[in-house]
Amino acid sequence: MSAKVIDGKAIAKKVRSEVAVAVAKMKEEHDYVPGLATVLVGDNTASTTYVRNKHKACQEAGIRSIGREIPADISQDDLLAIVRELNDDPTVDGILVQLPLPKHIDDEVILGAIDLAKDVDGFHPLNIGRLAMKGRDPQFIPCTPYGCMRLLKEMDVDLNGAEAVVLGRSNIVGLPMGMLLQKANATVTICHSRTKDMVEHLKRADVVIAAVGITEMVTGDMLKPGAVVIDVGINRKDDPSKKRGYRLVGDVDYDSCAEVAGAITPVPGGVGPMTIAMLVQNTLEAAEHKLSQS
Ligand code: NAD
Hints:
Elements: E1 4-5, H1 8-30, E2 35-41, H2 45-61, E3 64-70, H3 76-88, E4 94-97, H4 107-113, H5 125-132, H6 143-154, E5 163-167, H7 174-183, E6 187-191, H8 198-202, E7 207-210, E8 228-231, E9 235-238, E10 246-249, H9 254-260, E11 263-264, H10 271-293
Helix pairs in contact: 1-10, 2-10, 6-7, 6-10
């Protein structure tokens, strides 16, 4: 079998252009343009690139973006003050604090201080709590899992009663992913570093979400034929043929899994572009919600 490639780049482009249309309509009808504020603490290269890409995506969708770049030695109280200032700013609809934060700052305190109505990353404990509860909906869904769900939707994957296996249980990917799949009526198994026999679970999975951070950990022989495989992982693999000496690969061994899977996301070009597209979507949703309340 040769799997269908799930083209995250193309689907993300579609999401971003839908948002751009809605933003243009909002501008025309309400004379209002949504705004996203990003907070970048320190100069971590990967974080700086992620934030830059987020601003670019906002710009393309017609969303205003405001960047706050803050030295790594900022105190927790001073960072809290910045978050509160952005909470009070009526031109800011979404606040994104780029993770990871420096070790001396408790991210639970910072993320918990973001106004719920502006929590476009969806990491506020109340948003996560609502995601976990039956009959409740969060105001925002964390961007990466939201993007994975959109990929499954675009591929017409029937989650009703499907066996879904999520590899990883982090607060930002694995945990919310499992809750979203469960809300969509899948039977969900979450595997993690202490799982005894991951392959036993994988073998019966109709849908696999890999979010572990281990290079090409999942191989084709672990999969049920026809499974839909969403690879969230972004890992560096040595590659002397590349100028920078490495290339990006996922948690899934693409070549062997593509032989067995029914559909699969590539890395890069799968989940990565969706994460940014869903952030832009969440910022639009924040502005729509605000306008509907006024
Ligand atoms: P994390 O380190 O916070 O969590 C990793 C999880 O994997 C943990 O829950 C751990 O229990 C589990 N794990 C570790 N070893 C395991 C094993 N042998 N078997 C099964 N589970 C195991 O990582 P994260 O923040 O959730 O990110 C996971 C990966 O996804 C990373 O490669 C990260 O770069 C990537 N990521 C990509 C995007 C994107 O937009 N594409 C967004 C976020 C994270």
